[in-house]
Design brief:
Helix content: 25-40%
Low-confidence stretches: 109-115
Mean pLDDT: 75
Order of helices and strands: EHEHEHEH
Largest sheet: 4 strands, parallel
CATH architecture: 3-Layer(aba) Sandwich
Number of helices: 4
Distance between the termini: 38 Å
Strand content: 15-25%
Length: 115
């Protein structure tokens, strides 16, 4: 059987959400944070950026409308792992961490009921 090989889709070819989901991107390294937010914005998401966990907490406190928290696991001033456990995380908000991690960091989402 000959299956046609599909090439990866570009951002303009990706399905767009009907209502832009709001994503808070938290990463201490500015260039990485801007690249991530730019890619998500081109894919149709509304992004806001924070440089560390404390800045993210301030944004979470001001705006109750984020659908997703995407945070670096190892950051100064409140790491993403700890940020995901804060009371300001709204019910129904997905929390994802990225970056270098240790196996002990994995269950933090489960403790918040996010499996």
């Amino acid at each position: 059987m000959n299956a046609a090989k599909q090439s990866p889709r570009t951002a303009s070819e990706m399905p767009r959400p009907s209502k832009p989901e709001r994503i808070l991107v938290v990463k201490e390294e500015e260039t990485s944070r801007e690249i991530i937010a730019s890619m998500l914005t081109r894919a149709g998401y509304e992004c806001q950026e924070a440089g560390d966990g404390l800045e993210a907490l301030a944004l979470l406190d001001l705006s109750k409308g984020f659908d997703l928290l995407l945070a670096g696991l190892t950051m100064p001033n409140l790491a993403g792992r700890v940020l995901g456990e804060q009371d300001l995380i709204q019910a129904g908000m997905d929390v994802y961490g990225f970056g270098p991690w240790h196996i002990d960091d994995v269950p933090f989402a489960e403790r918040k009921g996010k499996t």
